[in-house]
Amino acid sequence: METERDEIDRKDTGFRILYSLLFWVIAGVVEMVVGALVVFELLFALVTKREPPGRVRVFANRVIAYFYRIGRYLTYNEPDPPFPFSKFPTEIEPTGSGS
Question: pTM above 0.90?
Answer without folding.
Answer: no
